[in-house]
Write a structure and sequence with these properties.
This protein is α/β, with parallel strands linked by helices. The chain has one domain: Flavodoxin domain (Rossmann fold), CATH 3.40.50. The chain is built from five helices and five strands; from the N terminus they run E-H-E-H-E-H-E-H-E-H. A five-stranded parallel β-sheet has the order 2-1-3-4-5, sandwiched between helices. The longest helix is centred in the last third of the chain and has 15 residues. It binds flavin mononucleotide. Flavin mononucleotide binds next to helix 1.
């Protein structure tokens, strides 16, 4: 039997009908039985990062996010690209982790998704730089840029592109078997 695995999913979008969030929900739905898949709701609750308030007694919201990360065996981040970078809420969340170190050696998969043909490649590039700085472990094959995402997911969040479904299954399998 496969060992139990806890995956924390982080969407870089707060938008209710976000494609990035739909992708993660889809992955959670097809996760194997031994996998506990949690989509965090902490990003919108975090205060703006400021080193002056990053003290021993962290804010409850910050502590809650750090605890989720600490207890996860692996992390999946799915994000849109905003103005050729990653959304501020995602960068803010990662800035809170620089001093506390929960990403060190954490197996982390990275997905960027955009309605444009570029697939959010600049967001991917920027996110990988930040994750490198906080020493996350990106396993081989655990990155995926999704171009024209709006053609591949319907309103209900169903993925109607077989090759995307396969790619997402593979990403999850790489992370779970790390
Ligand atoms: C402020 C803003 C900036 C954006 N900048 C980019 C961009 O640089 N590159 C890109 O591919 N899409 C860009 N987009 C389009 C987003 O990729 C698109 O709105 C996407 O659906 C957002 O992701 P979500 O569906 O997960 O919320 C931008 C959208 C907004 C609202």
């Amino acid at each position: 039997m496969n060992k139990p695995t806890k995956i924390l999913a982080i969407s870089g979008s707060l938008r209710e009908n976000s494609f990035s969030t739909k992708i993660l929900k889809h992955m959670g739905n097809f996760a194997p039985e031994n996998v506990t898949f949690t989509l965090t709701d902490k990003l919108e609750k975090l205060p703006h990062f400021n080193p002056d308030i990053d003290q021993d007694q962290a804010y409850a919201e910050v502590e809650a996010f750090r605890t989720e990360l600490k207890s996860a065996d692996g992390v999946i981040i799915s994000t849109p690209e905003y103005a050729k970078g990653i959304p501020g809420v995602l960068k803010n969340a990662l800035d809170w982790i620089v001093s506390s170190g929960e990403f060190i050696d954490k197996p982390t998969a990275v997905i960027s998704a955009s309605p444009m043909t570029t697939g959010g490649e600049e967001a991917m590039r920027s996110l990988l730089l930040t994750l490198g700085m906080i020493n996350a472990h990106i396993p081989d094959g655990a990155t995926l840029g999704i171009p024209q995402v709006s053609l591949k997911i319907d309103k209900e969040g169903n993925i109607n592109d077989p090759s995307l479904k396969k790619d997402l299954e593979q990403i999850l399998s790489i992370l779970v078997n790390k």
